[in-house]
């Protein structure tokens, strides 16, 4: 999942499972309904609500769109498992886990970015200036096996360092900024708004970003297998809507920053977020599948997974 707001708690690894129904009587006879459980974040499945591109593309194929949210991860989980939504967003790490534990979901679009919006930042109190300086220090992460844990493991592996010498501290996403600024932790391994807040803290030191590593941690949009298999033409229309939304943001990046403002981000944080790159929407083609298999292998190497799942069976290639 990409950007997150501490007050609204958007996790990098959204715990989604089960699938929603394929249509709704509210959509009208002979039409389908695409029920979107969207998040309080500036990924394209959220910002496209403003542009109306999903509705425009859906109209061409007889599909209406129902917006459910914005939902925090727990509520999104409850909504999806109750069969009241068909699609949502998560991180590629969670998707890899998902692909290995069931066949209820399929990925239909990758939201890809360079990795500048992910990284490890040390606070001034710690005196840390490089990764090795984190030995014996406390580093805040979102959850064991989550995005922060992944970034920390990857950074240390590529630097030839022992991540076991770091004390990982699991933080609630809403407390990252306070824990970092107060010195409760010496550094954080995080992403998006929590990373931006750390970067904007006076005296902080960026130790590394995802752009400096072989990171395959991006956002991904997933749909219930039931809906995808029953409505391939309609799903392609929804994918096309996301492609149009990515083009809109590329032409005018305020599409992203304005969404942050709407969700309560301060001007200082918005300025920092504006330095992050604008994502693209990519199809789940053979190149993306290969990248996710590499991510799966990294998860195995870090002890997050026992084996790399069969990614090919869990994607819909809309290229």
UniProtKB/TrEMBL annotation:
SUPFAM superfamilies: Periplasmic binding protein-like II. CDD domains: PBP2_NrtA_SsuA_CpmA_like. Pfam families: NMT1. The keyword Chaperone does not apply. Residues 1-26 form the signal peptide. Keywords: Signal. This is NrtA/SsuA/CpmA family ABC transporter substrate-binding protein. Residues 49-253 form the SsuA/THI5-like domain.
């Amino acid at each position: 999942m990409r950007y997150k707001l501490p007050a609204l708690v958007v996790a990098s690894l959204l715990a989604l499972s089960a699938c929603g129904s394929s249509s709704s009587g509210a959509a009208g006879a002979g039409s389908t309904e695409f029920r979107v459980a969207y998040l309080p974040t500036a990924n394209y499945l959220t910002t496209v609500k403003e542009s109306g591109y999903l509705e425009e593309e859906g109209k061409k194929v007889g599909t209406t769109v129902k917006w459910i949210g914005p939902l925090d991860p727990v509520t999104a989980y409850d909504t999806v498992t109750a069969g009241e939504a068909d699609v949502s967003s998560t991180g590629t790490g969670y998707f890899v886990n998902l692909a290995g534990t069931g066949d209820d979901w399929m990925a239909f679009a990758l939201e890809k970015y360079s990795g500048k919006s992910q990284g490890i930042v040390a606070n001034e109190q710690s005196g840390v200036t490089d990764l090795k300086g984190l030995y014996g220090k406390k580093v805040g992460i979102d959850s064991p096996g989550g995005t922060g844990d992944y970034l920390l493991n990857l950074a240390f592996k590529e630097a030839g360092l022992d991540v076991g010498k770091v004390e990982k501290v699991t933080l609630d996403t809403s407390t990252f900024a306070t824990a970092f600024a107060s010195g409760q932790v010496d550094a954080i391994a995080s992403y998006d708004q929590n990373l931006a807040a750390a970067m904007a803290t006076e005296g902080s030191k960026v130790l590394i970003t995802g752009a400096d590593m072989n990171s395959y941690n991006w956002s991904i949009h997933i749909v219930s297998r039931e809906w995808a298999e029953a409505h391939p033409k309609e799903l392609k229309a929804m994918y096309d809507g996301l492609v149009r939304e990515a083009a809109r943001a590329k032409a005018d990046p305020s599409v992203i920053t304005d969404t942050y403002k709407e969700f309560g981000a301060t001007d200082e944080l918005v300025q920092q977020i504006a330095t992050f790159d604008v994502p693209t929407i990519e199809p789940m083609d053979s190149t993306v599948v290969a990248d996710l298999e590499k991510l799966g292998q990294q998860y195995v190497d870090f002890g997050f997974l026992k084996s790399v799942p069969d990614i090919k069976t869990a994607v819909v290639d809309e290229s």
